[in-house]
Amino acid sequence: MVIGWSYFDGASPGTILLRAIICAAIIQAGYFLLVFAMIGKATPTSADKIREAERGAILNKVADGEKLSARRSLH
Asked: Could you list the residue range(s) of the whole structural domain that residue 6 is in?
């Protein structure tokens, strides 16, 4: 749309390219912000809540001495 408008307006090829790049950057930034806002406002579903509850129950069953760590003993 911008390229057509710029062409019929009699803009130079450099101006047309610059306008197209600026518009593409604005559209991409708007899309990113929209997706970011949608993710930020999303509430956990019931399946997410059940999964979190199961993870908590499993972690509570593991004894303190049996917690997983990055270091493992060789004996």
From this structure: 2-62
